[in-house]
Each structure stands twice: as C-alpha cells, then as structure tokens.
Amino acid sequence: MIEKLKNIVGQRWVITDKERMIDYLTDETATPVKPKPATELVLVKPANSREVSKILKLANRDKIPVFPRGGGTGLCGGAIPTQNGIILSLERLKGIEIDRDNLMAIAEAGVTLKELVEKVEEQGLFFPPHPGDESAQVGGLVACNAGGSRALKYGVMRNYVKGIEAVLPTGEVLKLGGELLKNNTGYDLMHLIIGSEGTLAVVTRVILRLFPRVADSATMIIPYNNHHDAINTVPQILQSGFIPLTIEYMDRLSVEVSAENLGLEWPCKVGVAYLMVIVEGQSEEDVRSQCMSISEICTKYNGLEPLIGITRKEQEKVLKIRSNIYSALKRNLIADALDIAVPPASLGKLMDAIDRIASKFNTVIPLVGHAGDGNLHPTLMKDMAEDKEGNLKKAKREIYREALKLGGVMTGEHGLGKIRIADVDIFLDKKTMELMRGIKQVFDPNGILNPGCSIKNLPAALQRHRRE
Ligand SMILES: Cc1cc2nc3c(=O)[nH]c(=O)nc-3n(C[C@H](O)[C@H](O)[C@H](O)COP(=O)(O)OP(=O)(O)OC[C@H]3O[C@@H](n4cnc5c(N)ncnc54)[C@H](O)[C@@H]3O)c2cc1C
After folding, report:
1. Is there a contact between 178 and 162 (Cβ–Cβ < 8 Å)?
2. What is the pLDDT at residue 467?
3. Which residue puts its alpha carbon closest to atom 19 of ligand 1?
C-alpha cells in the first residue's frame, strides 16, 4: 500500500517515520481524556482533490481506516488516529481567492483561519466566525461546524458555508452549493457534511460568505462580586434589543491563570466573575452609546464599574487573555473541558446545578463560555481524573443530565469527536441514532472514514464505557 500511496502523492509526501509523525497523533484534547493513537500508521499529504480521491479509492477497496486531519486544534480527539490506517493531512491544499463582487471567499481545506482572515482583511472585508485557535484549518472548521465568541451576532460556520467540494470514501468528488445565497435543490447534503467531523466525506474546498468590514468596536469588561449576578445579566442584555458581537463569561481563577501564563496582568482589580461584551457599530458615537446602555443594564443587575477598551491594543490584550484560558488551564489543571449548550435564559440554572455537582464531588469547576449563546465550558479538574472512584465520569454524566433537563445538549460547538460519543445516548433517542447510522452507511458503506467518531460505532463504544 505504501508504494501505491507514493505513486499517488509522490515519495516525499508519504511519511512512515514515527518521529516525523508525532505531531499528527494528537490534538488539543485535555490529556487525561485524550484517546491513544494506534501504532501502525502512515501519514499522507495530498496536494489536491484528485489525489484525495485516489487515496480514498485505494483505502476503500482494501477497507483501510482513514483519519482526515486539519490543524489538530480539535478539543475532543476527532483527528486522533485510533486505529491502524492512514492519516490524511489536508495541509497542502492552500489555494484561496476572494470574489469581491459576490462577497465570497473560495478556500481550499488546508488554509488556516489566520491565513483566511489576513486575506479577507487585505480586501477590506470581514469573515465573522472566529473560534479561539487561528491554526485551525478551513476543512476542520467546516467539519466541526465551529462556533467561537462572535456566534452571538453572526452565527456559526454553518451560516457562512455556501458551497463545498468534498470527496466521498468511494473516491467520487461531490460539488455542492456554490456562490449562492439561496439553494433549495433537493436534500441539503452540504449541511449534512458540515459538522460531520470527517465521518461522511473529506472536505477539500469551501465557498464562504464574507461581509464588509464594520467601522468601530469596543470591548467592555464588567466585573461582578457574584457569578450568578453576572450570568443572570446576560438575558437582560439580550432582551434589551442590543445584539453585541460577543458576550463571554469568565471567572476570576480562569482569567488570572491565563494572564499569568502570558506574562500579562488581568486589568480588573475587583470582582470574582466577569462578562466580556464586545460591541460594534458604524461610528465611534454609535459604539459609545451602546456601551453606555449596556453598562446601565449591568449596573441594574449588580455589575461593578465596567472597564471599557476602545483602542485596538486594549481590546487585543483582553481578547488574548480570554483566548488563552483553555491552553493555560490545560497545562496542569484540566481533566476535561465540557461544551454544554442550553437555551440562553437557562444558563443561571445550569450554573446552579454545576455548583451543586462541584460541592457533591468536593471539587471546584471553573466556568468560561460563550454566555450570549448559552454555551458554557465547565472545566473538570485533574484531581477528579486522579481519584479511583470514577468521579470524573460520574460528575460529567450528572452535568449532562442537568443540561438535558434544561433542554440542552452535550456539545454546542466542539463536536462529539472520540471522547463524547460514549455519552451521546443521554441526548439522542433510538430513532435519531438509527437515522444517523443509516446516513453513515449510505455515505461510507465500508466504514473507513474516521472510525471511532461515528454513531455507527456506538454500540461498541457504549459497551466499553459501561464496562469501565
Ligand atoms: C485554544 C483553543 C480555542 C478554541 N476555541 C474554539 C471556539 O471558540 N469555538 C469552537 O467551535 N472551537 C474552538 N476550538 C476547537 C477547534 O479549534 C475547532 O474545533 C476547529 O474547528 C478544529 O479545526 P482543525 O482544523 O484544527 O481540525 P482538526 O482538529 O484537525 O480535526 C477536527 C475534526 O475535523 C475533521 N477534519 C479536519 N479536516 C477535515 C477535512 N478537510 N475534511 C473532513 N474532515 C476534516 C477531523 O477528522 C476531526 O474529526 C478551540 C481550540 C483551541 C485549541
């Protein structure tokens, strides 16, 4: 097989040496829950969709598992190759064009978020979605339907994808959608592929909607002496008629660990919990007036004196601290960072439930999240992974059950990957899972694409989980 792969992509792009493969065996999942990679793997780096097609045909014929891989920034083990087979890195697919007339970007799968943003901004345009790690690649962002802090105003990746070129496990190349704002032609296979985490097809090229750049923005930090007051202010802001770009919730522990890790100082001296609200507008005056109105709402709900960053430098500093929270906590503290989403007005109730669970398990559960979207990331700490009682799993399932009671889901933006699949039965009923298995069977009859991430593998995953 190795020789055949070399014939497809060239000798240089087939890697079997373990040392050179090491970065491709992992992702950004917290270490205590990170899946173990398999041992017999080959890393292949195709240059275009024709080569991807040939690789998949070969793998499908011989029933060899294939693990599509983007930037490896995923948080739930999605790209980790857990069975012997092929790691398919899309990093060489780097083409990008901007169509100014139609306000669209046409980007190949391996373009990073950083490269996309730079190219779009060069043209004076704006690509709204911005998940926290800019080394994520376009293919991975689409495969995970990534969100990020700006989803409150602008929505998630799904809202921006207008066309996809994807290669099926059987090697056929699908071209779905286009530079179109409307398309009602048959079942929407494009939206089925978005968020399918590399289990249905390999995304090779994407058409993304762009917007003109917004004139001005400001970042406010509103401190609170009580985290319930902070979270309960969020629905009040949303009901007031303002839609900020972002409403993020952060607790003091998380921001201080992150700031220290960066060698920076968290600019707020008071408060135990914070809302970070970013507003944007067509003029400085518009932005200032929104800040004033939001400050008044926060004060009414016990917010302390807000800190308002107007200059780009001030705004970048707090954003940097916010974006670094996961990486800073991950070093020594995180066992598992959850990704719960509930209806936004129920966040306060979710927080109460998480407090109760934390005290039951005699631990602390720091919280950060995209509060405006109802999407919270409770951080389960390493001490829980180290105890012998299985408390990490128990606490996690209790949080999931509380989320379910509130009409919520186990993952708002990170996806199931390989670490959440075993608990998916809490949220999906039998019929829904049956339909999902059927869809997987139609796209990938031999089950070669990203095994371990798919509902198709659920019975085995569940049995394993219940044994543990
Ligand atoms: C510090 C930090 C902050 C983050 N913040 C956010 C956030 O705010 N919001 C958010 O949603 N996520 C966030 N993430 C998670 C992560 O960045 C996203 O999930 C991102 O979409 C992953 O993209 P990737 O290219 O790194 O994919 P990878 O990690 O390489 O892969 C992720 C999944 O996509 C599949 N895949 C990758 N490329 C393709 C392809 N071309 N075709 C088919 N399948 C493919 C893989 O098989 C895997 O299942 C954050 C991660 C970090 C480390």
Report:
1. yes
2. 45
3. 74
- What are the phi and psi torsion angles at 95 (to 5°)? -65, 140
DSSP code at position 229: H
For residue 181, the one-letter residue type is L
Structure tokens at 436: 């999902």
Q: Among residues 284, 286, 377, which one has the least CA distance to residue 326?
A: 377
- Is any atom of ligand 1 closer than 6 Å to the C-beta of 25? no
* Non-local CB neighbours of 315 within 8 Å, separated by 6+ positions: 217, 218, 219, 278, 309
User: Minimal CA–CA distance to 155: which of 364, 413, 377, 438?
Assistant: 413
Residue pLDDT, tens place only, 61-110: 999 999 999 999 999 999 999 999 999 999 999 999 999 999 999 999 99
Q: Name the residue among 45, 49, 8 with its Cα closest to residue 205.
A: 49
CB 166 within 8 A of CB 151: no
DSSP letter assigned to residue 112: B
Q: What does the chain come to in residues?
A: 468
Cα–Cα distances (Å) from 63 to 101, 169, 449, 454, in that order, read 44, 10, 10, 16
27 lines ligand 1 (CB under 6 A): yes
Q: Say yes or no: CB of residue 131 within 6 Å of ligand 1.
A: yes
From the CB of 167, is ligand 1 less than 6 Å away?
no
The answer to whether residue 452 scores a pLDDT higher than 90 is no
CB atoms inside a 10 Å sphere around CB 295: 17
Nearest CA to ligand 1 atom 18: 74
Phi first, then psi: what are they for 411, rounded to 5°?
-140, 125
Q: Which atom of ligand 1 is nearest to the CA of 204?
A: 41
Euclidean distance between the first and the last CA atom of the chain, given in angstroms as a whole number: 36
Angle between helices 312-323 and 252-262 (to 10 degrees): 110
* Contact by Cβ (8 Å): 140, 450: no
Q: Which residue ranges form the domains of the chain, and what is each CATH number?
A: 2-89 (3.30.43.10), 96-212 (3.30.465.10), 216-327 (3.30.70.2190), 333-426 (3.30.70.2740)
Q: Does residue 219 surpass a pLDDT of 60?
A: yes
Q: How does residue 11 score in pLDDT terms, banded at 50, 70 and 90?
A: very high
